[in-house]
């Protein structure tokens, strides 16, 4: 369904991604596992159209995406929850959840419907009640995280990308997000799940890709490798490997 083909991205001397290729299948939870700095968020930004690869490309159902163009990615059904919580602090929870939706639906959504859509999206990601009218900047971080998750879900994405989103959540909300991920995969959507936590990897993934120093060192079904083998494959780079050309 979705292919990342030979994608490379450098930031000055730093190689964030090096000729990375991954095939993603609809109807799966696909985990991206890797140490700090291995390139996970760079991959997420490429798949959201906010960073442009130096070479290589992204192909969705045969259509190639090129350039920096977040709107094209959103229109194609990608929705991303970034590692940094991005909210408009002065605006209400409802406004934050529906941010950009008018443009996507190509109509102005009336007030009552806005509240209802925001409430429904929140219910899919959280047990914790979040006050819809409150400025999002006044909420605790965990609630802000729920707001950005609800924003992604409100778009009914074909491809939902979650970059380390569970860290701030309590147990019940984390469980709700996991149920949502499974439900989306069962509806033939693709869920890209970025995490460090091996318990989450083993519980949730259908397929797993490991990034190490910007390279995809393996992509496989869950169960092929043990947690120990996965940890070995993602081992931090050695001093010799860190030397750049
Ligand atoms: N905007 C940037 N400018 C310079 N270097 C960057 C930039 N973004 C990422 N990098 C570097 O690229 C490499 C990959 O970063 P990336 O954020 O993709 O890693 P990550 O796997 O998401 O790490 P983490 O687990 O800490 O979130 C790192 O060495 C990082 O310092
Ligand atoms: Mg990251």
| Termini Cα gap | 35 Å
Give the percentage of residues in beta strands: 25-35%
User: Quick one: overall form?
Assistant: globular
Helix content: 25-40%
Number of helices: 10
Order of helices and strands: EEEHEEHEHHHHEHEHEEHH
Strand order of the largest sheet: 6-7-8-3-9-10
Give the overall average pLDDT.
93
Largest sheet: 6 strands, mixed
What small molecules are bound in this structure? adenosine-5'-triphosphate, magnesium ion
Give the total of beta strands. 10
Radius of gyration equals 18 Å
Q: Given the helix and strand composition, which structural class is it?
A: alpha/beta
Which parts are unreliable, with pLDDT below 50 for 5 consecutive residues or more? Answer: none
Short summary of the structure?
The chain has ten helices and ten strands. By secondary structure, the protein is α/β, with parallel strands linked by helices.
């Amino acid at each position: 369904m979705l292919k990342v083909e030979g994608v490379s991205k450098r930031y000055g001397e730093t190689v964030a991604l090096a000729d990375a290729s991954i095939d993603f299948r609809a109807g799966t939870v696909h985990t991206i596992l890797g140490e700090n700095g291995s390139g996970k968020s760079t991959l997420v930004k490429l798949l959201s159209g906010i960073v442009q690869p130096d070479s290589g490309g992204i192909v969705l159902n045969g259509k190639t995406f090129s350039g920096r163009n977040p709107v094209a990615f959103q229109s194609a059904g990608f929705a991303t929850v970034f590692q940094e919580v991005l909210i408009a602090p002065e605006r209400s929870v409802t406004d934050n959840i529906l941010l950009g939706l008018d443009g996507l639906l190509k109509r102005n959504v009336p007030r009552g419907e806005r509240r209802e859509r925001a409430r429904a999206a929140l219910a899919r990601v959280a047990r914790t009640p979040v006050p819809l009218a409150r400025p999002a900047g006044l909420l605790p971080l965990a609630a802000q995280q729920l707001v950005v998750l609800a924003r992604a879900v409100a778009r009914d994405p074909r491809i939902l990308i979650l970059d380390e989103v569970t860290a701030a959540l309590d147990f019940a909300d984390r469980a709700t997000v996991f149920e949502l991920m499974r439900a989306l995969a069962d509806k033939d959507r693709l869920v890209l799940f970025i995490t460090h936590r091996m318990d989450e990897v083993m519980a949730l993934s259908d397929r797993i890709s490991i990034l190490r120093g910007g390279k995809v060192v393996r992509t496989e079904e869950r169960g092929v490798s043990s947690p120990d083998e996965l940890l070995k494959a993602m081992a931090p780079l050695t001093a010799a490997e860190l030397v750049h050309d």
